[in-house]
Design a protein that fits this description.
Elements: E1 17-20, H1 28-35, E2 54-57, H2 68-72, H3 82-94, H4 101-109, H5 126-140, E3 144-147, H6 156-171, E4 189-193
Parallel strand pairs: 1-4, 2-3, 3-4
Helix pairs in contact: 3-4, 3-5
Length: about 200
C-alpha cells in the first residue's frame, strides 16, 4: 500500500485541545483514525493508556433507528437517570438544540421504550444531525475524544460556540459537570482535524 507517514514522533499530554491541520489529502483523517485505534500502523507504535476511553467521532454522524434519547445516551454505562437527563438538557441548550429538549423529557418520562419506526429523524437538517453526534460524544464524556473536522458544517458564529464548548469540556474534565469535583476526574483530551478555513485557533496545543 501507499506510505502515508514516515518518522513521526508525536506526544500529546493529557488535558489538551489539539488541532491537526494540513493540506487536502495530506493524511489528517488517517492520522486521527490511527490515534482512535480504528486502524493500526504497519510499523511503529501508538500508545494510549488502556484505562482511557477513546471515542472517534466521524464527520458524518450516524443515527440509530431508535428514540432520540437512546441516540443521545448511547455511550452511558447504563440507563440514564435524572442527573444524566439534567446534564443532557444543558448540553443540548449549549449547542443550540433546545427544540429537542421537550422530546427528550417526554421520552424519559415514559416507562416503556419507544418502539416502532422513528419519525423524528426525518425533520432533522444535516447540521442538526452533526450536532446530535457531538452531543452524544459530550454526554459519553470519554477521556480521549477524536473529532473529524467538527467545524466543517457550521458558520463562524456556531464555530465560536463549538470551540468554547470543547474548551470547557477539556478544562472542566467533562461538559456540564460539577466544577467543585473536577480534581476527582481524569483529564479530558480532544484531538480534532480542522480545515484550512479555521478551527485551529481554539486549540491549546
Amino acid at each position: 500500500g501507499t506510505e502515508l507517514f514516515r518518522s513521526i514522533d508525536l506526544e500529546v499530554p493529557q488535558g489538551k485541545l489539539v488541532a491537526v491541520f494540513g493540506a487536502h489529502s495530506s493524511g489528517k483523517s488517517h492520522l486521527l483514525r490511527l490515534l482512535a485505534h480504528h486502524i493500526f500502523p504497519s510499523e511503529g507504535e501508538i500508545f494510549i493508556a488502556s484505562h482511557l476511553r477513546i471515542l472517534h467521532v466521524a464527520r458524518d454522524a450516524q443515527l440509530l433507528d431508535r428514540s432520540l434519547l437512546d441516540n443521545l445516551t448511547l455511550g452511558l454505562p447504563g440507563p440514564p437517570g435524572p442527573k444524566d437527563i439534567k446534564r443532557l438538557l444543558e448540553i443540548l441548550n449549549e449547542l443550540g438544540l433546545h427544540e429537542l429538549q421537550p422530546q427528550v423529557e417526554e421520552e424519559f418520562a415514559r416507562e416503556a421504550p419507544v418502539d416502532g419506526p422513528q419519525t423524528w429523524m426525518k425533520a432533522l437538517t444535516p447540521t442538526e444531525v452533526s450536532l446530535i453526534g457531538l452531543t452524544r460524544a459530550l454526554v459519553m464524556n470519554p477521556e480521549v475524544m477524536v473529532l473529524q473536522k467538527p467545524f466543517l458544517m457550521f458558520q463562524s458564529e456556531m464555530c465560536k460556540k463549538l470551540g468554547g464548548v470543547l474548551a470547557e469540556h477539556v478544562e472542566n474534565r467533562g461538559l456540564k459537570l460539577d466544577p467543585a469535583t473536577v480534581s476527582l476526574r481524569r483529564p479530558r483530551t480532544v484531538i480534532m482535524s480542522v480545515a484550512a478555513g479555521g478551527g485551529a485557533e481554539f486549540a491549546s496545543a
